[in-house]
Amino acid sequence: MKIGVIGSGNIGSSVGRKLAELGHDVTISNSRGPQTLTETAKEIGATAGTVEEAIAGADLVVLAVPVKAVPALPLDKLAGTIVIDANNYYPARDGVIDDLQLKRKTSARWTADHAPGAHVVKVFNSIYFQHILDKGQPAGADGRIALPVAADNAAAKQIVSALVDAIGFDPVDGGTLDDSWRQEPGTPVYGTDLDRKGVEAGLAAAER
Questions:
Q1: pLDDT tens for residues 9-47?
Q2: Can you tell me the distance from the alpha carbon of 24 to that of 2, in angstroms, rounded to the nearest whole number?
Q3: With contact defined as beta carbons under 8 Å apart, do 22 and 167 qualify?
Q4: In angstroms, what CA-CA distances link 166 with 28, 54, 130, 138, 163?
């Protein structure tokens, strides 16, 4: 697949690296321009590009930026494209966003509202970036870390779940984008590296 990554921080570069290792064509971008990404791109096996270059013709886009940066991105160009939303809302960093602060919307739903027609899938927001790189295990391994995957579109959820499995983690159905608060910061599954049964129990036990 042709994959564009928006955001070259810890999560974006880690997910980009693992997808490049699977043989996908990965272009990584950030707000500062491709000239700042030459070394990062070389290290992870990707191509450096602008945000526009990363998303042009992409089959899948990984969004890993501060939530406050989402409205300024050209996400309106991603209708029909699968978008992995790996973001978390942190008020101290992102400022107060009323819909999120008052829990009127999940951060995934809020992001999807800025990407009309895109198939947004919430995943990779609940795991520490270094663990994406070094804690993946083969399918069936004892204690394999599981990751919740939330989306409205069943086909997109299936495709992303297959990628999660391919890079070494058990995908667990996290419901719809409106259910994805169960994997946001402060919930039982956030940053806890639980296995499949643990994630299923954690999602069910989450309180809002």
A1: 999 999 999 999 999 999 999 999 999 999 999 999 999
A2: 6
A3: yes
A4: 20, 22, 17, 8, 5
For the chain, percent helix, then strand, then coil, each to nearest 5? 40, 15, 40
Longest Cα–Cα distance of the chain, Å, equals 45
Beta bridge partners of 149: 173
Residue 149 contacts residue 161 (beta carbons within 8 Å): yes
Distance separating alpha carbons of residues 96 and 111, to the nearest angstrom: 15
Question: Contact at 8 Å (CB) between 134 and 187?
Answer: no
Copy the structure tokens of residue 40: 């990062």
pLDDT tens digits, 53-72: 999 999 999 999 999 999 99
